[in-house]
Amino acid sequence: MRHGQKWMVGAGVLLALLGGLWLAVAALMPDEEELAARASRELQARLGVPVKVGALRWRLFPTPAIVLHDAATAQPQPITVKKLTVYPSMAALMDGRMQADHADLDGAVLPQMSLRELNAGKEAASVPGVAIPLERLVFRDVTWITRYGRELVFDGEVDFDPNWRPRQAKLRRPGVTPAADLTLTRQGQEDRWTTDINVGGGTANGEVQLHTRANGRLHLDGRLQPRGVEIASALAAFKRNSIVTGKASGETALSANGDTIGELARTLHTRTSFTVGDDAKLRVSVDRIVKSFGQERAGETPLESITGQLDTQNTPAGMVVSLTGIKASSGALTASGQAKIANRRIDAEFAVDLVDGIVGVPLQVSGPLDKVEVSVPRSAIAGAVLGTAVLPGVGTAIGARLGAAVGKIFSPAPVKKP
Fold first, then answer.
1. Cβ neighbours of 72 (radius 10 Å)
2. What was the pLDDT predicted at 386?
3. Cα dihedral across residues 254, 258, 264, 266: positive or negative
4. Which residues, in sequence order, are CB contacts of 375 under 8 Å at separation 6+?
């Protein structure tokens, strides 16, 4: 037999083997209608809500894969998946088991309030007999919708160790400048990860660790070090506005408790001690606010520094933000105070000392975040003027604070209805 004939015979044997393998695998795979029905039943059992699957197809070439199209939950604001491609393990498939090597998610919408209605707990996060249910997940164009309807798009990828522990994970906001992204890297086989965060032209690097209690309950804690984070830019990356500009640095401690990863996210608490340097600026004119009793605010107020503590607490009703121990200063004024933001409303009070003789003026900030009201009691200004007349210097401060106190006595804040 000539060499060319031997090559043709060898190629024919190889093709026969491949064809036989294709037929064997195809015989193991269910038809597409059965796949779609099975997927709907399994998803409903795990999530606790009906799920409609538009189409579910499987293919062998160029690589074996199961492709899900247009899945949606039956909810007032549905969770939707445009396309999910799962690449099964061929070894597991030949053994009659379904195990995924990796998956690609292209297009999804995840409303926060709809996710909270799902019954996806620990029992839905494991596959019996499989150490690593999924080795790698890549996702693109995933839209997170906050409880107030703000839409945020994310891309990223996760490589998993056993028990769904991320070996490395990356999350980013595409199209945002400067970059806004997070990288988690596991330290060996410990439940400890280094965090590398870029946001607002600065960084917030650190470490987080996960503890499993004897009763199975999870506890998360960690520390971050924000450095040179431009406040307005960082908030804009997540479609939020800021009245303050400037680069912030500080120390952040975070903690959370829960039975599942979802509960950890819903109970997350952070505490940050921060300092904003001499590039700080308020996007309002405090001088105009005081002199107009809150009627005018156009302009800016340069500041030499801002310090304070920022606390955030996730709750069933949303995030509560508290600012305490705030101190701000510039050549024109000094101010101190505190603020609380919850349910998209702000309630804050500041004491402002102006160099031109008006001292200790209470500044009250309140109302919905999209329509904030700033008020200055007239009694406070009257007290400041009286204090200056009685005793310049010390008398100014005493008179101002006396005027503010008198204003609170005779003009008390309205009682909030329960």
1. 16
2. 40
3. negative
4. 293, 294, 363, 364, 366
Better pLDDT: 378 or 390: 378
Under 8 Å CB-to-CB from 50, ≥6 apart: which residues? Answer: 40, 44, 73, 74
Distance CA 88, CA 68 (A): 13
Q: What are the tens digits of pLDDT across the range 229-286? A: 999 999 999 999 888 999 999 999 999 999 988 889 999 999 999 999 989 998 888 8
Q: Please tell me the distance from the alpha carbon of residue 327 to that of residue 242, in angstroms, as a whole number.
A: 17
The amino acid at 159: D
Q: Give the ranges where 254-328 is alpha helix by DSSP (H).
A: 261-266, 286-291
As a whole number of angstroms, the distance between CA 224 and CA 272 comes to 9
**In a 10 Å sphere around its CB, with 0-12 CB exposed, 13-18 middle and 19+ buried, how is residue 70 labelled?**
middle
Residue whose C-alpha is closest to residue 289's, from 362, 382, 339: 362
Which amino acid makes up residue 181? Answer: D
CA 356 to the chain's CA centroid: 43
Half-sphere exposure at residue 311, Cβ-oriented, CA atoms within 13 angstroms: 14
